[in-house]
Task: structure prediction
Amino acid sequence: MVAINGTGNGYPQGQCTYYADQRYHALTGYYVPWSGNAKDWASQALSYGWTVSSTPVVPSIMCLQAGVQGADATYGHVGVVESIEKGTFVASNQNWGPSPQNIVNVTFSPGPGVSFISVTNNGKAAGSTSSSLTTTLSSLVTGQGQGPTIAPNADVTQFLWYLDQIMAVTNPFSNVSNSQDSISFAGANLSFTDPIAWTESVMGNVFDDFVAVMIRSIFLLIGTVIIIKVISNFIDFGSLASSLQSGVETLALAGAL
Result:
């Protein structure tokens, strides 16, 4: 079923629903075609051909059920996923916290009562983009990319924290996109896991782990070389090797006699 695009944003300004609809449209060109409270968005999305998943993608609409992770106890909450970390994600929100008129970025965790709504075309979320290595490295300094950034005045602690995020090795199957497609059959809306999206997600996680292992190996090699260099200032390995060789030759000669 082809995802249905809404004709505009019919939610009242200042509400989380208005912001999520407007922000997602800015990123993808799609307005949500349904109405209702934030907590109802996930249950309505499938019938309009949208994808509903338990795993975040960028961009997608986060849907929190009532009372989940600080959401309103009656109406729930929606926001837009802006970046993803291993085990958490950052969503932009309005009508959240002590200053409801402000747009704020908040870190959440996937789990019970948390759904992610998106328009998926050929296994790829609408609005998602890939960046070159140069662009990605530049974004770490400017703060314009997704995920953790390194500010121009970053201290050692910030740098080590970011490095720790890169070198984290996790189970590649523990945070896999299970994006769903939906079909109508005999008057019922059925959904099934998209194998292409699942495979792409697993391979992406495997690549992240490969990069983490390579970086760890490089640091291990550098550390080993440094330790050898330091010890060589106190121990003459050449003389030690000669002494060992002489000792072995002496023992061998004694054994021959």
Observations:
- The domain at 16-219 is CATH 3.90.1720.10 (endopeptidase fold (from Nostoc punctiforme)).
- The radius of gyration is 27 Å.
